């Protein structure tokens, strides 16, 4: 098993544990490759020599390793998942900072986690992914999302109108700030803030949650993951935002078809014994805590 | 195809259309059987002779027919579904009164609907059903539900505590007026009133929606339909209510295990061309109407 | 200043601090009177002699003292407020157990609180109170409420219909499990569980919050405290529940007028320096805590 | 009584009724002045001669008339209210298009409304107004709002942090898309979409409603209208949006103090007999409609 290391290079608390882990892995005879940004940062802080960096830096990290260690929070894990891409390289989220939904191994426990993985005592959770396509062509920034796609008015514009059809049948017209198309994985992220339900990751569904809908009756709706959704946005001449996993882009042509469907690939999260989704709900959301 | 007729005998507008339909079906050479209460009501109103009633009344309606026509609203359709029982006799809801989610053929269209069925131009929607079991034994009133099971404080008692485990793993502790275990079919009924999401009927999930939870963080959660749920209710000595599809019973022993899981059978709704769930959402919930 | 002591006699942790406080107050030369149940409980536990009990027990506690110390949680404070009654005797909530909204002095701090009061360093918060009247006569159990009145279906009945008029003008028809008429003080209690807003206690308003309304558009509404509200409940022959501050009673005659308006008296809460409502929100509701 | 006419000049259905009304008012001997844009539009459509336009066009409409007739919807009425400004000129909303909350006289009824006003059979509703001030100086676009101020992330940015103090006491830290500071009048506008309560216009309160808060416990809060609110926004370097009654502007310096308080002036709406707020709720929001 070759391990790849990536992480949130903005966080100062990244460097020391990663530096130590690399030494420890070398002593254990475990193979490791580094994301170029991680290698550079370690060298800059004197935690890695230039020679070591040259030996360990990957050109295409996700292609060269069997498992990605993602050091950071949920935002970093989303980036690592996009780095793994359609290749499906398994990802283990190592949390630095506040506990995350996706990054659920604490940094202090990473050696123990690697030992457990080496012992084969883990499984992969294949998380469903959505992909989107514009009538004008592919979505340039991020063509797929582990958490959600969001159609959103841009900040200075007013309400937008979003016509949605599902498998060719008209669903409804949303008049709102925006509309979230969420996977079960994303149900505890933005969709929850906008009033959507919590959906456990094994459910084969997609959730449509409106943001500040002008119409009181527009509740979140849960649809089978097999559907093909088409949305058309009308803004009265303003550009609007299409965001995937938090990365936003402006769309200028209104009325064009946006198609959203389940992608063929999945994001494969490494799960260790004793990690449980409900436990994460309780500790992260204070769900049910009094 | 033998048709069975059942309905809401409390509604005066039941009788005339049913009486006329029976004559019309006789003229068409279509076989029909009547629920005893329906037969009695028709005779009492002079719409059927004693001889005809004797010939048409069924002893065990759901066993003797190929398709049940349920005249009434959604409440009547739930009763017809329970009449069909585990046998799975298909049910067509014929609406008298306000439009329903389940009873979605209008009474004026019933002849046309029967012609369409005779032409084979229909399909069955197999709706998932939940079943419940008490540690003390089977649930006496209604052991399964098409819409939902509800655990509820009785009217004069205070908040109740409900401990829930899912497949043996602790989910959370609810401190609330009650807790709804809803099917997708039930998602537009009581669960929606309590803040649950709309879930389209093809989704293979169960929805847990708390009623007036004391804890702000307790949002509705959607789980895969394959789970086995255990609930234990603590009330401080008061009885509490267990309701299935709106039929309530008092449970006196607190702390006993209530097991809820997907039933093996389904309720089979007859769907005709042109009927669409999203259309019903819009017309019934004024969903998205401005 | 004569102090009265009342409290939750169901809680074993009541007795020791109260016994010690009485001794301490005697040493300080502070006058104290005891609720009969408190006196009896102290004697039974050997924390007070019969003679002392005879000397300190009040016949009509709220009439004989200048300030009530209420040992317990929010439920106990509601009872103490009703003990103070229309007389308006100031009440200080001393919390034993989980922190409360109303009982916001911790039991360890009670001596310091009394010293502060003796130094005159406190103020009274006059909390608005609602009163209710039935067409058939006064509400037998509790004619007024510091938190809320609730109209509720009884446990085994279905939805109820509640027609509401405000100052003689039709407001709307609720079709729901129930309807809460809350004061600002009650806004963080049951009304919040049912989806109502938090309303700071100085606001001169009453909040109407439906419980599980069948109609998606029925949001909570905030009205001026000066209004007179009339409600009529229709149940189809079932009794229904009218509760005041958590004490429930069955009402049998449906359709009768229930009048709810601001009472002339207030409940006067003793507030000490450094206690702040927003702080209580954060610590009690984990409001805004991440 | 001199009447001023202003309106939504984007709507083609404005011109004919306004042209006819001017003729009718002339015949009745009623004095009228026109907003320059309205005069120009009427001339361009041949509904007014150049001479008439010259005679009727106002230089400063709100200063020259006793009452403003605002032809349009709620958006137009907000503009007319800002045209009336701190002067407090009474405004009557004449609705063209969908029924509005604020514009509640239908265009067909405008002559009857004017007769009623001439007979003195009307009253003014003084609607409370909020004003805002930046630490860096006055808010350039709109310094006060009849409906609401909104602090909002700009479209491409992520969540923003908003620290709020009330009368110098820390309320909480919002981590959300935005935060709405609403008057009672605005409670049925954007605040309602974001989950806020309906607040009847006589209530002397301000409502803080978060937009898609990341924290589940952050419910809307209602505060007395007398408070002074300070907000500081942190975005990590992005500009953010401050909007007043729907008019948006970008604020570039994060962390600066934004002060929001009740303004000294009010917007004075002309109300005719038979118009009732609850009726508008029912017809506009379908509030309580089944």
TrEMBL record, chains A, B, C, D:
NAD(+) binds at residues 74-75, 147-148, 177, 188-193, 212. The keyword Signal does not apply. Keywords: ATP-binding, Cytoplasm, Kinase, NAD, NADP, Nucleotide-binding, Transferase. Pfam families: NAD_kinase, NAD_kinase_C. The active site is at 74 (proton acceptor). It is an enzyme of class 2 (transferase). Its cofactor is a divalent metal cation. One of its GO terms (cellular component) is cytoplasm. Its EC number is 2.7.1.23. The keyword RNA-binding does not apply. It is found in: Cytoplasm. PANTHER family: NAD KINASE. Involved in the regulation of the intracellular balance of NAD and NADP, and is a key enzyme in the biosynthesis of NADP. Catalyzes specifically the phosphorylation on 2'-hydroxyl of the adenosine moiety of NAD to yield NADP. Belongs to the NAD kinase family. This is NAD kinase. The gene is nadK.
């Amino acid at each position: 098993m070759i391990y790849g290391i990536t992480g949130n290079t903005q966080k100062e608390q990244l460097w020391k544990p990663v530096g130590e882990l690399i030494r420890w892995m070398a002593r254990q005879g475990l193979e490791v490759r580094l994301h170029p940004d991680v290698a550079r940062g370690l060298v800059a802080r004197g935690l890695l020599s230039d020679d070591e960096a040259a030996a360990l830096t990957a050109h295409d990290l996700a292609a060269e390793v069997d498992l990605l260690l993602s050091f950071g929070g949920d935002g970093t894990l989303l980036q690592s998942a996009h780095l793994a891409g359609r290749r499906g390289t398994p990802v283990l989220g190592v949390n630095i900072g506040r506990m995350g939904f996706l990054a659920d191994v604490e940094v202090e426990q990473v050696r123990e986690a690697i030992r457990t993985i080496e012992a084969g005592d883990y499984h992969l959770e294949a998380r469903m992914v959505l992909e989107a396509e514009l009538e004008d062509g592919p979505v340039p920034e991020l063509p797929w999302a582990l958490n959600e796609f969001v159609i959103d008015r841009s900040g200075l514009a007013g309400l937008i109108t979003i016509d949605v059809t599902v498998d060719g049948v008209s669903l409804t017209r949303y008049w709102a700030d925006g509309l979230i198309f969420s996977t079960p994985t994303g149900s505890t992220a933005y969709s929850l803030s906008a009033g959507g339900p919590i959906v456990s990751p094994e459910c084969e569904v997609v959730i449509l949650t409106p943001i500040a809908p002008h119409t009181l009756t527009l509740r979140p709706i849960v649809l089978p993951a097999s559907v093909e959704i088409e949305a058309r946005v009308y803004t009265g001449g303003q550009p609007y935002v299409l965001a995937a996993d938090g990365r936003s882009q402006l769309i200028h042509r209104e009325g064009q078809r946006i198609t959203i469907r389940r992608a063929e690939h999945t994001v494969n999260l490494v799960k260790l014994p004793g990690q449980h989704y409900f436990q994460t709900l309780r500790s992260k959301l204070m769900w049910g805590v009094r």
